[in-house]
Design goal:
Layout: H1 3-24, E1 29-33, E2 38-43, E3 50-51, E4 65-66, H2 68-71, E5 110-112, E6 143-152, E7 161-166, E8 173-177, E9 180-185, E10 192-195, E11 205-214, E12 231-236, E13 239-251, E14 257-268, E15 274-286, E16 291-298, E17 302-306, E18 311-321, E19 336-345, E20 348-357, E21 362-365, E22 369-372, E23 375-376, E24 379-384, H3 397-410, E25 414-417, H4 424-433, E26 436-440, H5 458-473, E27 479-486, H6 494-511, E28 517-521, H7 529-532, E29 537-540, H8 564-570, E30 576-582, E31 601-602, E32 611-612, E33 617-618, E34 624-625, H9 632-641, E35 647-651, H10 683-691, E36 698-701, E37 716-720, E38 724-729, E39 732-738, E40 746-748, E41 757-764, E42 767-775, E43 780-787, E44 791-792, E45 799-808, E46 820-826, E47 829-835, E48 849-851, E49 856-863, E50 869-876, E51 881-882, E52 885-889
Helix pairs in contact: 3-4, 5-6
The structure holds beta-D-galactopyranose.
C-alpha cells in the first residue's frame, strides 16, 4: 500500500471525525454541573438580618433588611405585560454580610455536594408541640442556611453570557456573586435562571453565595431544605436560544404522518442587533441508551434579526413521515425524538440546543375518557409527593426510577405531581418509561392552607411561577394536562375565585395551547362558578361521595353524595377524572380486630378495628380511610357505575414524609399503596388485580401467625383478577366464592384461626387461575438480603436498594418480626440510609441500626465516586444467621 494512499485515508478519517464531531458536540453552548465542592452552614437564628419580605412568623421585623425589591426582577422574563416588570432599585443589599464576601473563610463549614437536603438526617422531633410537627415530617427543615462555592472562570469565558441554573432550592433563594446580590427565587419547587454575566470576572476566581430560608408552617407535607436539585452553569454566546427557548408540538398525527410545529426564542444579550439563521434537524432518540439516532426531518431554515437586548421567536413546521408515536406502556410505546437547533451568525455556529420530544395526539372525550393516538387509555394513576423517603427531598434519578418501576409493576400508567413542579429529570423518566403525567404547580393561591405557605408570595409571583413551570415542562410528551391548583380555597369564593382561576387558565393557554388546563376540586359543585373555568374536571374524593355511607355517619364535616353524575350532566362536553381517590390508610403488614363488615370505613372507627392510636398503626385490611376517603373497593364501584369517568389518581402511590393522618405524632404518611421504604402493602395487590386483569395473581391477607387468636374469628381476604375462589385452612374448604358485581375482593369473614396453612385456589371463566399460600411461621432464625441491583455505577449518585427479610427456619418471612438489625459495609461504598416503612419509627434515616418492621428492613447503599471493586453489605441481628450481599462497582 502506498504511503500516499495511507495519508489520504488518514486525512479522510480526520475530516470525517471532525464532521461527525461538529454534528455531535453542542457547538457554542456549555452546560457544566455545579454539584460538587460546596460549603454549607445552617443557622436557626437570623444573624445576617436579611429577609425576603416581612412574614407573620418573624416578630422582630424592624431591624431586618428586606430584599424583595432586588429579588423581584428575577421574575421579569415571565411577566408578559412590560409595564408590570420590575425595576431593580439601586444599592447592593447584603454586601456587608461576611458570608457573601470573597474574603470570608468558609473552611470550617460543612463540605457538601448537591443535591442536598439538610434536614433529612434528622433527628426527628418527637416532643409534643415540636417546632416542626407531624405535618411537615418532624424533621429540622426550618431556618436559614448558606451555601458557598468558588467559580473559576478562564479567559475563554470572556464575552460569553454566563447563567446560573438552579433546578430547585428550598426556599426563598437569594444569590450573591463576588459580594453583589444577583437575584433569587422564593418558590422552592420551581427551577430558575440568574444571569451572572455582569457580576462575573472571567479569567479569575469568583465567589458564589446562596442564602435559603425555610419558614416553619410553610407546607402541609415535608418540603425538605437546601439546594435539593441539580445546579448548572450555562455558558453561551450572547446571542443564543433563550432559557427553555423551544416549544415543540405535534398535530394531524397518524401512523403515516405528523406535523411538528416548532417555536424557537432567540435572545440577544449583546450590544448590537444580529442577523441569525436558525436551523433545526429532527432525529430519532433512543432513550434506553441516550443516543441520538438517524435524522428523520429538517425544519425549513429561517433568518431573523434580533435587536440588542431582545428576544425574537422563530416559527416553523415540518412533516414527519411514518412517525414512531409516543404512548403510554404497556399498550403503546414511549418513542422519543430529539430536535437539534443551531443558530448561525455569519455562517458560524454560535449555539446548539437539543429538545427531546414525542409525537402523539391526545383526545379528552367527555363520554369515553382519554384517547392517546386515538386509542382509549384508562387512567390508572397515583399521586406522588416529591420526597424520596429516607433520602428526603434531595433528588436522585435512581431512587425516582425505582419508585416508577414498582408503580409500573402495579399496573399504574399515570402520575399526578402533587402539588408542585417536579425535578426536571423525573419528567425525563416519565417520558422514557411511558407514564402519563398531570403536572401541577400550586397547592394554594391567595387563600392560605398554612400560616407561611405560598399565599404570602402568590400576588407577586404567581404569573412568573406559572409561566416558568409551563415553559420548562411543555416539551415532555408524558405531560398530558396542566393543573394550576389543588383544592384551593378560591373554589368557594364564588365569582372572585373563578375570576382568579380564569387568569391562571388563560396563562396556561398562552404558554401552551395544546393541552387542557385543570384544577382539582374537592368542594366546588357543578353549579358554582369555579368549575366552569376548567377544561378537564378533576375531582378530589367527591366523585365517589364523601362521608355518605353509614360507617361515616357520625363524623363531623360535609357529607357529599357521589358527584360524578351531576358534573357529567352539567358539563356534557368536559372529560372528568378523579385527581384524588381513596385516601385509604394502612400500616404495612399490621392487622387489627375485629374487622369491619363494611366495604369502606373511617380509620377512626375503633369498634371496627380501624386504627390503634397507642401504636400509631392502621389496619392493613385495606378497608379504612381518612374521614373524607373511600376504600379502593368503594372507588371502583362508583367508577364502574359511571363509565364516562376517565379513571383515577389514587391518594397516594407511595407513602411520603409528613401528613401522617391519623396520627400526627408519627413522621410519615399512611396513605401509600407502597410504604415509605418501597415495600408493598396488601393494597398493592388489590390495585394490581384491577389494573392488570390478565396477571395470574392471587394474594391472601392477613398473615397466619396469630398464637393468641386460636379459635377467634380472623377474616381472610383475597385479591385476584379471578372471578371465583376457594379458600382452604389446613386442607379444609372454607367455601368457594363468586365475585358478584361490585365485589373487588373475596372475603371469608368468619374464619376461626387455627395455626397451619391457608391456601387459596382461584378460577377465571371456570378454569384455574392463580394460587397463594400463607403458613404459620415459627421463631425467626435467619436473614435474607436481596439487592434490587447487584452492580452499581461509581458516579456518586447510583444506588442499590437492599431488602432484608427476617425469616423462620423454613424460609418464610416472620410477619411480626421486629428484631434490631445492624448494618455494616466493606469496600468502596457507604450506607446512605435505612428504613422499615413504619410511619412511627423515629430512628434517624442515616442510622445503621434499625428494627425490622413486620419482618422487613431496607438499606440503601451508594458507591464512592470514581471507585471500583466490590462492596459487601452485612446485616446482623441477635440469633439470626445471615449471608452478606455483594455488589460490583463499575
Ligand atoms: C387532599 C389533599 C392532599 C392530601 C390528601 C390526604 O385533600 O389534596 O394533598 O392532603 O387530601 O390527606
Amino acid at each position: 500500500m502506498s504511503s500516499r494512499y495511507v495519508l489520504y485515508n488518514v486525512c479522510g478519517l480526520i475530516l470525517l471525525s471532525l464532521f461527525l464531531l461538529r454534528d455531535a458536540a453542542p457547538v457554542g453552548r456549555e452546560r457544566v454541573s455545579l454539584n460538587t465542592g460546596w460549603r454549607f452552614l445552617r443557622a436557626t437564628t437570623n444573624t445576617d438580618k436579611l429577609i425576603y419580605d416581612q412574614r407573620p412568623d418573624v416578630s422582630d421585623r424592624n431591624d431586618l433588611n428586606v430584599l424583595k425589591p432586588w429579588i423581584l426582577p428575577s421574575a421579569n422574563d415571565f411577566i408578559s405585560d412590560p409595564a408590570k416588570r420590575h425595576q431593580r432599585p439601586i444599592g447592593a443589599p447584603g454586601s456587608d454580610v461576611p458570608f457573601v464576601q470573597e474574603t470570608f473563610d468558609d473552611s470550617a463549614w460543612e463540605a457538601v455536594n448537591l443535591p442536598h437536603d439538610w434536614a433529612i438526617k434528622g433527628p426527628f422531633y418527637t416532643e409534643d408541640n415540636a417546632v416542626v410537627g407531624g405535618g411537615m415530617g418532624r424533621l429540622p427543615v426550618q431556618g436559614i442556611s448558606w451555601y458557598r462555592r468558588e467559580l473559576t472562570m478562564t479567559s475563554v469565558d470572556k464575552g460569553k453570557s454566563i447563567y446560573l441554573d438552579i433546578d430547585g432550592a428550598m426556599s426563598y433563594a437569594m444569590v450573591w456573586l463576588n459580594g453583589n446580590l444577583v437575584g433569587g427565587w422564593p418558590y422552592g419547587y420551581n427551577s430558575f435562571r440568574l444571569d451572572l454575566t455582569s457580576y462575573l470576572r472571567p479569567g479569575d476566581d469568583n465567589q458564589l453565595a446562596i442564602r435559603l430560608d425555610n419558614p416553619t408552617d410553610s407546607s402541609r407535607w415535608y418540603p425538605g431544605g437546601g439546594i435539593y436539585r441539580n445546579v448548572w452553569l450555562t455558558k453561551v454566546d450572547p446571542t443564543h436560544i433563550a432559557q427553555w427557548g423551544t416549544f415543540i408540538s405535534s398535530k394531524e398525527v397518524s401512523a403515516q404522518s405528523a406535523t411538528i410545529d416548532l417555536v424557537v426564542q432567540v435572545e440577544n444579550k449583546g450590544p448590537a442587533s444580529r442577523q441569525i439563521e436558525v436551523a433545526t434537524d429532527v432525529h430519532a432518540f433512543d432513550s434506553a441508551t441516550g443516543r441520538t439516532g438517524e435524522k428523520v426531518a429538517e425544519f425549513p431554515r429561517a433568518t431573523v434579526n434580533v435587536p440588542a437586548g431582545q428576544k425574537q421567536p422563530v416559527n416553523c413546521s415540518v412533516t414527519v413521515k411514518n412517525p414512531q408515536l409516543w404512548g403510554p406502556l404497556p399498550t403503546q410505546r414511549p418513542n422519543l425524538y430529539v430536535a437539534v437547533t443551531r443558530l448561525y451568525a455569519s455562517n458560524k455556529t454560535i449555539d446548539t440546543y437539543e429538545t427531546r420530544f414525542g409525537i402523539r395526539s391526545l383526545t379528552f372525550d367527555a363520554g369515553k375518557g382519554l384517547l392517546v393516538n386515538g386509542k382509549l387509555v384508562r387512567i390508572q394513576g397515583v399521586n406522588q409527593h416529591h420526597d424520596l423517603g429516607a433520602l428526603g427531598a434531595a433528588f436522585n434519578v435512581r431512587a425516582a426510577e425505582r419508585q416508577l418501576e414498582i408503580l409500573r409493576d402495579l399496573g399504574c400508567n399515570a402520575i399526578r405531581m402533587s402539588h408542585n413542579p417536579p425535578a426536571p429529570e423525573l419528567l425525563d423518566l416519565t417520558d422514557r418509561m411511558g407514564f402519563l403525567v398531570m403536572d401541577e404547580v400550586f397547592d394554594c393561591w391567595e387563600r392560605k392552607k398554612t400560616a407561611n405557605d405560598f399565599h404570602l408570595i402568590f400576588p407577586d409571583w404567581y404569573e412568573a411561577d406559572l409561566r416558568s413551570f409551563l415553559r420548562r415542562d411543555r416539551n415532555h410528551p408524558s405531560v398530558i394536562a396542566w393543573s394550576f391548583g389543588n383544592e384551593v380555597g378560591e373554589q368557594s369564593t364564588a365569582e372572585a375565585g373563578a375570576a382568579l382561576a380564569q387568569k391562571l387558565h388563560d396563562i396556561v393557554h398562552e404558554e401552551d395551547p395544546t393541552r387542557p388546563s385543570t384544577a382539582s376540586i374537592n368542594s366546588a359543585k357543578p353549579d358554582m362558578p369555579f368549575p366552569q373555568v376548567l377544561d378537564v374536571i378533576s375531582l378530589n374524593y367527591q366523585g365517589e361521595g364523601i362521608r355518605d355511607t353509614p360507617p361515616y355517619a357520625d363524623l363531623q364535616g360535609i357529607k357529599t353524595p357521589p358527584q360524578y353524575p351531576d358534573f357529567h350532566s352539567k358539563f356534557p362536553a368536559k372529560m372528568i377524572v378523579s385527581s384524588e381517590t381513596a385516601a385509604t390508610l394502612s400500616t404495612r403488614g399490621t392487622y387489627l380486630f375485629p374487622v369491619t363488615n363494611e366495604v369502606s370505613a373511617p380509620a377512626s372507627d375503633n369498634a371496627g378495628g380501624g386504627g390503634n392510636p397507642g401504636l400509631r398503626q392502621v389496619s392493613a385490611y385495606e378497608l379504612y380511610t381518612a374521614p373524607f376517603g373511600a376504600s379502593p373497593d368503594k372507588v371502583f364501584t362508583t367508577q364502574d357505575k359511571n363509565p364516562f369517568v376517565a379513571g383515577e389518581f389514587v391518594w397516594s402511590g407511595w407513602d411520603y414524609l409528613g401528613e401522617p393522618t391519623p396520627y400526627y405524632s408519627a413522621r410519615s404518611s399512611y396513605f401509600g399503596i407502597i410504604d415509605l421504604a418501597g415495600f408493598k402493602k396488601d393494597r398493592y395487590y388489590l390495585y394490581q388485580s384491577r389494573w392488570r386483569p390478565d396477571l395470574r395473581m392471587a394474594h391472601i391477607l392477613p398473615h397466619w401467625t396469630w398464637p393468641d387468636r386460636v379459635g377467634q374469628v380472623t377474616p381472610v381476604h383475597v385479591f385476584s383478577a379471578a372471578d371465583e375462589a376457594e379458600l382452604f385452612l389446613n386442607g379444609q374448604s372454607q367455601g368457594r366464592k363468586k365475585k358478584e358485581a361490585s365485589n373487588y375482593r373475596f372475603r371469608w369473614d368468619e374464619v376461626a384461626y387455627q395455626p397451619g396453612e391457608l391456601h387459596v385456589v382461584t378460577y377465571k371463566n371456570g378454569r384455574e387461575w392463580a394460587n397463594d399460600t400463607v403458613r404459620t411461621t415459627d421463631a425467626a432464625t435467619q436473614l435474607r438480603l436481596t439487592a434490587d441491583r447487584t452492580a452499581i455505577k461509581a458516579d456518586g449518585r447510583d444506588l442499590s436498594f437492599i431488602t432484608v427479610e427476617v425469616l423462620d427456619s423454613r424460609g418464610d418471612v416472620a410477619p411480626r418480626a421486629d428484631n434490631a438489625i445492624t448494618f455494616s459495609l466493606n469496600g468502596p461504598g457507604e450506607i446512605v440510609a435505612t428504613d422499615n416503612g413504619d410511619p412511627a419509627d423515629m430512628a434517624s434515616f442515616p442510622s445503621k441500626e434499625r428494627k425490622a418492621y413486620n419482618g422487613l428492613v431496607l438499606v440503601i447503599v451508594r458507591a464512592k465516586t470514581g471507585a471500583s471493586g466490590q462492596i459487601t453489605v452485612t446485616a446482623t441481628g441477635t440469633g439470626l444467621r445471615a449471608a452478606p450481599v455483594t455488589l460490583a462497582v463499575k
